[in-house]
Write a structure and sequence with these properties.
The chain is 28% helix and 22% strand. The chain is α/β, with parallel strands linked by helices and 152 residues long. The chain has a 5-stranded mixed sheet, with helices on one face. It is built from 4 helices and 5 strands. Helix 1 packs across helix 4.
Amino acid sequence: MTTALIVCIGNDLVADDGAGQAVHASLEAISLAAGTRLVFLGLGGIDLLEVMNGEDLLVVIDAVQLGAAPGFVHVLDWQAIPALGPRPVSGHGIGIREAIEVGRRLYPERIPTNIYLIGIEGKCFNQLGQRLSPEVAAAVPRAVDQLLRLLP
């Protein structure tokens, strides 16, 4: 049986940073295939290593800032996930790529074979107490659809 881990990252107290949490809430209402685990993390980064158990597939869902229009849904495989640079991919400190690379050195048996990022392009990451922007809220169902296409 193919195993999959879906990790949704975000904080619904900070505007578009809540995109991952909104996707998580949508996924909780869906019956996912056997062998699929759904996890929510308020912060990503190195915490990602704690939830991996060597699954075949890892899909991380998070709000991103990659320069596209707000609400655009990126689907990036491992090769396309950018490293942190002067402009972070995610607001959670260490990026997905960096966390996985650390994990490959420390816990190689825990790192999934196939890794994807579904990133919802956000526009507001500095307004405490604000809801998702309309563009990001509208992107949540599209992100769920993209995720379901990746699952076995």
